[in-house]
UniProtKB/TrEMBL annotation:
Residues 78-103 have a biased composition (Basic and acidic residues). Residues 56-68 have a biased composition (Low complexity). InterPro entries: GcrA. Residues 50-130 are annotated as: Disordered. It comes from Mesobacterium hydrothermale. This is GcrA family cell cycle regulator. The lineage of its organism: Bacteria, Pseudomonadati, Pseudomonadota, Alphaproteobacteria, Rhodobacterales. It comes from the Bacteria.
DNA sequence: CCCTGATTCGC
DNA sequence: GCGAATCAGG
């Protein structure tokens, strides 16, 4: 494969949108992310935001540069290209990581949880108020879940439990986890609540 | 280990 | 110019 005009343009476009090199490479096909990065540099359009190094930084940032007298024109998009791409994830709260292999590793079971009554319930973060969207997603995901057993779980398999541990109908999602998280994308969606609009305790 | 971009350097 | 290998960081 070679860098045809079209391919270069797609590269520029995607890079401008904050896509990662690997994503771009995947999209283009026939090239590796290294090739993409190499090209990006050769084109001179490397840094797109503050810190480029590291998995961080992907969101477009407002330019705060003095902009000397040698900068290419910004990017006047003549065609109105609707591309709603808000932050896919609103920063989850600090979470007790690594429940490790316990009988019930999930802090927030999808179904009912049998709570041994007696003590006042521990601070259970919003067990409800999960967007119906997210829930629907989870239900779909469960269909294609890998249904792993406890022992089959690895560092990057979704550890979301499904079913009742007391029955045979119990398994773990097992889909690829979202980086850094213990769950797959869908389950992260219901596990990590951004913060619910505090319903004041009104009685 | 997964991922990210940055650099180097032989081709 | 190209991009695999390597580096550096999360």
């Amino acid at each position: 494969m070679s860098w045809t005009d079209e391919r270069v343009e797609l590269l520029k476009k995607m890079w401008g949108e904050g896509q990662s090199a690997s994503q771009i490479a995947k999209e283009l096909g026939g090239v590796t992310r290294n090739a993409v990065i190499g090209k990006v540099h050769r084109l001179g359009l490397s840094n797109r935001a503050g810190t480029a190094a590291g998995g961080a930084a992907a969101a477009p940032k407002a330019e705060a540069k003095p902009a000397p007298a040698a900068e290419p024109a910004p990017k006047p998009q003549p065609k109105a290209e609707a591309k709603p791409k808000p932050a896919p994830e609103p920063k989850a709260e600090p979470e007790p990581e690594k429940p490790k292999a316990e009988v019930r590793p999930a802090p927030l079971p999808p179904r009912k949880q049998i709570i041994p009554a007696g003590q006042p319930l521990p601070p259970q973060p919003s067990a409800n108020e999960i967007s119906p969207e997210a829930l629907a997603k989870v239900n779909e995901v469960e269909k294609k879940a890998k249904k792993l057993t406890l022992m089959e779980l690895t560092e990057r398999t979704c550890k979301w439990p499904v079913g009742d541990p007391a029955t045979d109908d119990f398994w773990f999602c097992g889909l690829p986890v979202q980086q850094g998280k213990p769950y797959c994308e869908a389950h992260v969606g219901v596990a990590f609540q951004p913060m619910s609009a505090r319903r004041d305790r009104r009685r």
